[in-house]
Amino acid sequence: MADKTILTIGEALKRGIGLSWSSPGVVGLGVLTEVGAIVLSVGLQIALALFLFRDALRGLEVVVSPLVGVPTAVAPSFDLAATAQWLIPLLAAALTAWIIVLVLRAIWLGAGVGRFADRLSAAGQRTPLLKLAADNLARVVLVALVFAPIALSGFFIGATLVGASGVVALSLSSSTLSRLFSALLVAFALTLALLVSRGVDLLFRVALVRSVAAALGPLDALVQGLGLLWARLGSFIALALIFVFLQSMALSSSSAFASALQSMPANGGAATVLFGLVGLGTALVGAILVSFLTTAEYAAYTALDLDARGALPRPETASPREKT
To answer: What is the pTM of this model?
Structure first.
């Protein structure tokens, strides 16, 4: 085992981006996950809109038919049975889509962290990506299940902070000083809620990395991940902020470009088709950038994890005799 070192933030960032760049298969799994989530979400939204539009047309027929003297046999009341016929299958489809996206994400992260741990370790193994995904799928799922109540608790803590600050703000008088204090109180509560949410998310990522990279169970990964996060808190926070900024820039750029295309005049025909294709291409580029940056983020966390465990080899340096 290599000697334990303290990996700098810049070196961890460099290794993360380098590993993501040299791992097109892992990034491809990320793109598949992101595109699958977008397609399933859009498909469910379109289906919901079509069903609601159909019910709206039926309601409009019930209202308008008597006004124009056309009899209608439809009773002007809400038909729960008819609504349940399409609402229940749609909810089942939404649940299925959510499970599919979660499985795809678990495959992506399990294969990615496993690949990065192999490449960063002294052994330098080259395990096939699909085997890594199969071996680590259960670990990722178990870590997610363990973190489900933790994430739910974090949500309730944040909601309680925001709700309590709102109640206090409404109970104060309407003077200028009270309004200023109310605004500061609500802003402080929102900041705390955001910190709790981001903290839980960061702990989940660190525990997931420790579980896959060190082949640990979910509870051991949680305890050791908490210790790792506490020991390298500054490095993890700095890397998380850097990647949040980069992902926000990538999404903002792609969204701005797509909005600019939509605002351009199109008189139908080839121009409309071209703008549609370019818009789809922009969405795909955005998914690729987000997948690349997320992969790089987990690669950087894996480097920090191996470094903390002393499993990250030191860079080879030439001895004084070799230099001369």
So the answer is: 0.79
